[in-house]
Amino acid sequence: PSSPWPPTMGGRQRAVLLVRALARLGPVATIVTSSDPITDEPDVAPVLARDFGLLEVVPPGRPSLRLPWRLARGWLVRKRVLDAWATRWDGAAGALRSDPYTAERVAQHVRHLEPDLVAFYGTSALVASGVLDLRDRPRVWLDVDDVPTVMVDEASGPRRAWRRASLLRRQRATLDAADVLTVTKGEDLESAPGLRRATVLPNLPWSLAEGRLPTVAPPPGRARLLSVASMSWPPHAEGVAWFLDDVWPRVRASRPDATLDLVGSPPDASRAAAWSAVPGVRFVGRVDDVAACYAE
Q1: Of 214, 28, 199, nearest to 17 (Cα)?
Q2: CA atoms of 286 and 133, how far apart (whole Å)
Q3: How far is residue 106's CA from residue 39's CA, in Å, rounded to a whole number?
Q4: d(Cα 83, Cα 100) in Å, to the nearest integer?
Q5: pLDDT in tens, 155-197
Q6: List of residues 6+ apart from 191 with CB closer than 8 A
Q7: What is the pTM assigned to this prediction?
Q8: Smallest Cα–Cα separation from 287: which of 239, 223, 228?
Q9: Distances from the Cα of 229 to the Cα of 103, 183, 223, 283, angstroms
Q10: Radius of gyration, CA atoms only, the chain
Q11: Which pLDDT value is given to residue 139?
Q12: Residue 211: is its pLDDT beyond 80?
């Protein structure tokens, strides 16, 4: 859904590794299904075209483009306000994960290119339905990298029960029809009925995948910890907060000399300041080369 380049976030890094793996088998073409503004950056667009075979950036259809909302477009209500109402009423998951425009646009590219394999990474399983519905379709691989943001469930679906039930049925049919399913961890296999047959394809530290991790062991007796994550992503920030509240005091009680460096895009300023005030914790923030942090 987002640009695979630059690899400044875990999701983008996984996308890069998947594309590189597929490129060993043959030519790869990429479609970005989002309105990620970074694709227009002058130093990013050439890389996407050269290394990823970028075909198109397909922005998601606005919720207000669907009935009944589009009937009110331009009539006393601004589009931005209408989109907000439509998303709130449908529920964020239903509005963003069942976009028929994106599914059809991807299917059009597949009909034209006639590829051997179509890999969907980090996007809604429902977006793949347009390809799975094709008469002579290629093999389809769904990589469900983050279940809460990719899958519609009983809690995250639209508020209207009939709409949620319809999306759940379509999602299950899509998962069942996919030729290959992958998830990032074993717990995800039980998170949805359609994922039980998936293969676990774990994430790798980016520096390890790049072959840039240090080979020299750290000095014995040192208790220095490193956390690398995009902490602007709320689940990551919540994980760090839990660790600092529930685990770190016990670590420091056992090893008063223990230190922890937090590397990655920051959460809000107040939380970053609070974390920096914790004894033994240093909030580093975003860095240009995370391999140097591993080396330290």
Answers
A1: 28
A2: 42
A3: 18
A4: 16
A5: 655 556 766 677 778 888 888 989 999 999 999 998 888 899 9
A6: 147, 151
A7: 0.72
A8: 228
A9: 31, 19, 20, 12
A10: 22
A11: 94
A12: no
292's tokens: 């140097």
**Mean pLDDT calculated for residue range 249-265:** 94
If phi > 0 it is left, if psi is from -120 to 50 it is alpha, else beta; for residue 124 that is beta
Q: What is the DSSP string of 92-148?
A: HHHHHH--HHHHHHHHHHHHHH--SEEEEESS-GGGGHHHHTSTT--EEEEEES-HH
Q: Could you tell me the two tokens for 255?
A: 């090893």
Distance of alpha carbon 250 from alpha carbon 265, whole angstroms = 26
What are the structure tokens assigned to 259, written together? Answer: 């230190």
Average pLDDT over residues 255-277: 91
| Closest CA relative to residue 264, chosen from 13, 48, 5, 3 | 13
For 244, list phi and psi in degrees, rounded to 5.
-70, -35
Tell me how long the chain is: 296
